[in-house]
Specification:
mainly beta, five-stranded mixed β-barrel
Length: about 650
């Protein structure tokens, strides 16, 4: 679309003339007596320092004067650094309104760039004011932005002509123009000089356009100050830059002004300089830029272009996002600031974005390799047990999984108890290697410890294991030396394919939750239980008289627990305070057949001096000690091994 202008107004407002020296202009707090305290004071001074906008005789800026369309075109093109090109523009074949006596080259260049139409030029009178929608269209067309009406969500959107809505949406999307109070755009309102300065300053601040030559914009943190030579060294992503700032020059702050003598190292300073880096405008940016949003991902690229640095990252959802980076953005790794060159491809980062979606902070998380045992492998999380603690990690959707660092496998093949080595960055797993030859879940009790071997009681047998030279010993959730192991310590351990122990975790047998099979159970004179863990470790405890006993969430008596059941116990101060029966319907137990009821096919078993009655399954097998089938009544009074399945007797074998 082309901007077509048809209205006529009268009177010219101002000539853009009168260049002020930056140093002299700001030495007393600014060259204009009518802008002090104005909401746009700083941006007006910035545009003056860039030599884009000038004042009137008598030290006036006239910030609230409305801008003519001709002035808007000139200021926009000057911001794009096209002042000289406009001066040499070809005027042949173009017709102008008779009142236009200056700026014809800028109008001709605007036609060339598609901002205006050749047919509309004769209708642009000298005093024709610029409306907000017209300025939006001029800026959008000058920058070549893609029109986007989806960002036009103002209460008065209906008053914005249809042909302008895409232009308005584009400048709103790029935060070049904003709405007025009450979420109004006020499309037909004229634009003031102060408002246009604010719009154009955003083009440079957001690096949509570079500062017009020979001016420079330097933003960084003060590295050093030389009062004698009146120079300041600023540090930013590009390195260090020296600017020359007179001692008596005004430096603007959030609440007022200051001078060179009041600056400190570490201060954030924004400077507009000439070609020799002599400061024409300076403002102190107090505090760190406010972070509105954070995004995490892997660095795809981080490089400097014509508009400064930009960073492209890939999120855990697989999206690639690119953001511009502020010149003085902070780059952090392990709590310390780093140089831009230290951010490289495949780094995992968390970026902080300001309200303009520009990066003001990059925190780099170095990859960490850790080993652990899988506790739970969820669809998007993986819980590992390491150093005695369980930790849940996020899993990248495209996580790479291998077995023994060679063969690829799917994430879904991981299961509880697998020993893995993972690459973690900021609590997110990107690579997993399954160490398939590692035996996990082994348990025992320490008997003897030597420098290269350890003896453990596993079940009723004492076994000798070689120790890996890098064996990891965990006690109380922290790594300890091998000599802190004591005879009688209960431990979990892991064994590699050589038979060497690579991890030993000392259990606090006096406190914690333990799961196993109930082997022995004594009620009198004091209740005691002995459980056998999955790894074969026997653990014996006194049961508190106030202990809670549960089955399927219901309270039961202690005497109702069947030896051989799968149970979980909670131990506090060396005594059991809670028992939960996990499974007493599927177990194998040695006992004596007390009585049988052939007609009802029911059998009463004496287990550890207590009696339990079960039904006989329809296809149950009954064998003598030679493995031959016998009748049910033939096993009465014998010591037998009984296997229960789903709460019924599945088999009886005479011992």
């Amino acid at each position: 679309m082309k901007l077509r202008l048809t209205s006529l107004l009268s009177a010219v407002v101002v000539l853009l003339s009168g260049l002020f020296s930056g140093n002299a202009a700001l030495a007393a707090g600014g060259p204009f007596k009518d802008i002090r305290g104005h909401w746009a004071e700083k941006v007006m001074l910035e545009m003056n320092a860039y030599d884009i906008v000038h004042g009137y005789p008598g030290e006036e800026f006239r910030p609230n004067n409305n801008v003519t369309l001709l002035e808007a075109v000139v200021m926009i093109l000057n911001t794009l650094g096209l002042n000289e090109k406009a001066g040499g523009a070809n005027l042949s074949g173009l017709q102008f309104h008779p009142s236009v006596t200056w700026g014809k080259g800028h109008l001709a260049l605007a036609v060339e760039k598609g901002m205006l139409t050749r047919q509309g030029l004769p209708q642009i009178a000298n005093r024709r004011l610029a409306s907000r929608v017209e300025v939006a269209a001029l800026v959008c067309l000058a920058l070549g932005l893609t029109p986007d009406s989806s960002y036009v969500t103002f209460f008065d959107t209906g008053e914005i002509p249809e042909k302008y809505r895409g232009y308005v949406g584009a400048v709103v999307k790029h935060n070049i123009m904003r709405g007025m109070p009450g979420n109004m755009f006020l499309p037909n309102e004229p634009v003031t000089r102060a408002q246009l300065c604010a719009i154009l300053s955003r083009l440079i601040d957001q690096k949509l356009v570079p500062p017009p030559a020979p001016m420079n914009l330097v933003v960084g943190r003060v590295a050093s100050i030389d009062m004698d030579k009146q120079k300041v060294v600023l540090r930013n992503l590009e390195g260090e830059k020296t600017v020359y700032l007179p001692v008596d020059m005004t430096v603007f702050t959030a609440s007022g002004t200051t001078t060179l003598g009041s600056l400190n190292t570490g201060d954030r300073l924004k400077c507009i300089t000439d070609g020799q880096y002599r400061v024409r405008y300076a403002s102190l940016v107090e505090g760190s830029a406010s972070i509105k949003t954070t995004v995490e991902g892997v660095v795809v690229s981080f490089a400097r272009g014509s508009r400064g640095y930009s960073l492209t990252l890939e999120t855990s959802e697989g999206n690639r996002l690119t953001y511009p980076v502020e010149d003085d953005a902070r780059l952090i790794r392990a709590g310390r600031e780093i140089a831009a060159s230290a951010v490289v491809e495949n780094d995992y980062v968390e970026i902080g974005l300001d309200e303009n979606n520009r990066i003001v902070r990059i925190e780099v998380y170095a990859p960490e390799r850790i080993s652990g045992t899988v506790v739970e492998a969820g669809s998007s999380t993986l819980t590992l047990k390491r150093q005695g603690k369980e930790t849940e990690y996020k899993v990248n959707p495209r996580v790479q999984v291998t077995r023994n660092f060679i063969r690829g496998m799917s994430y879904g093949e991981l299961k509880r108890g697998d020993r893995v080595e993972v690459v973690v960055m900021n609590k997110t797993i990107f690579q997993i290697n399954l160490l398939s030859d590692v035996l996990t879940g082994q348990s025992g009790m320490v008997s003897r410890v030597h420098s290269k071997a350890i003896y453990l009681y596993v079940g009723d047998e004492e076994k000798r294991y070689e120790l890996d030279e890098r064996v990891e010993v965990i006690k109380d959730g922290r790594p300890v030396s091998l000599d802190e192991l004591r005879r009688g310590d209960y431990v979990n351990f892991e064994v590699d394919s050589r038979g060497y122990i690579i991890t030993i975790e000392v259990l606090d047998e006096k406190k914690g939750d333990f799961e196993g099979t109930l082997k022995y159970f004594v009620l009198y004179p004091r209740p005691w239980v002995t459980i056998v863990t999955t790894g074969g470790l026997e653990m014996e405890y006194e049961v508190s008289t106030s202990a809670t006993v549960l089955r399927d969430g219901d309270k039961i008596n202690l005497s109702d627990i069947v030896p051989g059941s799968r149970i979980s116990i909670r131990v506090e101060d060396g005594r059991v305070t809670e028992i939960e029966v996990l499974d007493d319907q599927n177990l194998t137990v040695q006992c004596r057949v007390s009585s049988v009821n052939q007609e009802r096919r029911r059998v009463t078993l004496e287990i550890n001096s207590r009696y339990f009655t079960y039904s006989l399954a329809s296809r149950a097998t009954i064998l003598d000690r030679n493995g031959k089938l016998v009748a049910l009544e033939d096993v009465k009074g014998y010591q037998v091994e009984v296997r229960l399945k789903d709460g019924e007797i599945d088999s009886i074998t005479v011992l």
